[in-house]
Amino acid sequence: MPLAFLLSAVLALQLALPALGAPAAQRTGDDAEVAASDPFMTIARIQYGGGGDWYAGPSSLPNLLRAIRERTGLPVAADPVTVRLTDPDLRNYPFLFLTGHGDFRFTEEEIDSLRRYLLSGGFIHADDCYGLDEHFRREIARVFPDKDLVPIPNDHEIYNTFYTLPEGLPKIHEHDGLPPQGFGIFHEGRMIVYYTYESDIHDGWEDAEVHGNPPELREEAFRMGVNIFYYVLAQSVR
Which of 170, 167, 47 has the alpha carbon at shortest distance from 107? Predict the structure, then answer.
């Protein structure tokens, strides 16, 4: 596991622990103004090639990072970063995010790099932005031909870390009208891939006027996003 990754996770959880007992609405002032102390404590959006709008939902990740910082006290950066899977500093980021609508294909070099990153302690959250499903499933099967995406039950820790979400993954957009599902790939007991399907969770993180989602739906989306990030850091220090 990269040293910067581990140290950041430990520091973040130590800073967060005193604030965990207070409801989010009460953590204001100093608790809500924690400055980012490590540029790697952020979300790294994957810029992929071969088609597809990897840049979909540009306001989603900055808004999620702000929610994480204000609600948990974690010293995350104000802004996400954009990375390619072949970037040399990829291994320093604890959280990769991938979304889009269309087809894409990783190069063999990207496949090898993503596999090494995930097996050495990294994590990726992929969000189906309607049209991504068959392509993501194909590409992640190239990364791990010997591992399956398995359904994540609603009582899993990822739905019960910072917030308790008894219904599991919230549904933000209708898509095909199917229920939202979370899938995961595990390595040595650790979730290394989390895939959200029929949810479009990151649309709920975007600016309110983009999709016109009601406040209560956006709140569900932010709670899920906070849980994902917190879960990633928590499992990294076990």
Answer: 47
Task: Note the helical H segments in the chain.
Answer: 3-16, 60-72, 108-119, 133-143, 208-211, 215-236
pTM above 0.70, yes or no: yes
Return the percentage of the chain with pLDDT > 90, whole number. 65
The model's pLDDT over 190-224, given as tens digits with 9 standing for 90+, comes to 999 999 999 989 999 998 877 678 999 999 999 99
- Whether the CB-CB separation of 44 and 81 falls below 8 Å is answered with yes
237, pLDDT greater than 50: yes
Residue 40, helix vs strand vs coil: coil
Task: Reply yes or no on domain 3-236 having CATH 3.40.710.10.
Answer: no
Q: What are phi and psi of 95, to 5 degrees?
A: -145, 115
Q: Which residues of 187-221 are buried (b: 16+ CB within 10 A; e: fewer)?
A: eeebbbbbbbbbbbbbbbbbeeeeeebeeebbbbb
| Cβ proximity of 171 and 215 under 8 Å | no
Query: pLDDT for 103-139, tens place per residue?
Result: 899 999 999 999 999 999 999 999 998 888 999 999 9
Cα–Cα distance between 98 and 66 in angstroms, integer? 19
Tokens, residue 4? 């910067």
CB 202 within 8 A of CB 129: yes
